[in-house]
Amino acid sequence: MSEATYAQPDRRRPEPLWYQVEQAIRAIIKSGEWPTGSQIPAEDRLGIMLGVSRITLRHALRNLEEQGLLRREHGRGTFVRSATLVAGTRELTSFTQEMGNLGLVVGSRILDFGMGTADAATAGALEIEEGDPVVRIRRLRLGNDAPIGIQTAQLPGVRVPNFLEPGPPEGSLYETLSRRYGIMPVEAREVYRVASVGIDDAALLDLPAGSPAFVVERVTTDERGPFEFTVSVMRGDRYEIRSTLRT
């Protein structure tokens, strides 16, 4: 494909040039022209193709690397990553929103949906009594049709009456809670640990049993208190945690 086919930033638009470049590169990746694992053009050539300076280009590339779309290897170049969810300092969003922010096509498969009772850990997280009714939603989460993780969310039954009707929520759980019950997340606390994937989860995640994974426990609250306790098992090769430390 000729270099002239790449859309160049429009300096008359209000968006910064680096942002326009970022979106242009996202579009190229999404189109499949640069498939997963492929090396993108060198900075000098890519700058000419997009009509921007190296400083502007590097700003966009750094953002895309931080967002998990690109991987830089010193001495080799920059490569398109597989679908990766990067966790770090970020806004309180749903998995669906996070995936969309990364330019990935979100997918989900319901593994279990029904009522249960709170065990000790769930009761403590949701600030309810052990044995109280809870709604359980277990889903296989996908990015660009590739498995990323298994999430088991539990909601206190008293906060979400008749949640099982008409069936499992489609799309974002938070959007469903907001629309049906007026529940709006205000804060979430997360705990991360590393564990080995069990046999059953490994089959769903398309991994060998015993592969490393992140286990993430998340308690989300609104103005009334905790309304969601989620345990996620995320593929170690498709989920990253990045932090910025400052003095």
UniProtKB/TrEMBL annotation:
List membrane-spanning regions. none
Q: What residue stretches are annotated with the HTH gntR-type domain?
A: 15-83
Q: Which InterPro entries match?
A: Bact_HTH_transcr_reg, Chorismate_lyase_/UTRA_dom_sf, Tscrpt_reg_HTH_GntR, UTRA, WH-like_DNA-bd_sf, WH_DNA-bd_sf
Recorded GO molecular functions are: DNA binding; DNA-binding transcription factor activity
| UniProt KW Transcription keyword | yes
Entry keywords, A to Z: DNA-binding, Transcription, Transcription regulation
Q: Which SMART domains match?
A: HTH_GNTR, UTRA
Checking CDD domains in the record gives:
WHTH_GntR
One GO process term, biological-process aspect = negative regulation of DNA-templated transcription
Q: What is this protein called?
A: GntR family transcriptional regulator
The species is Mesorhizobium alhagi CCNWXJ12-2
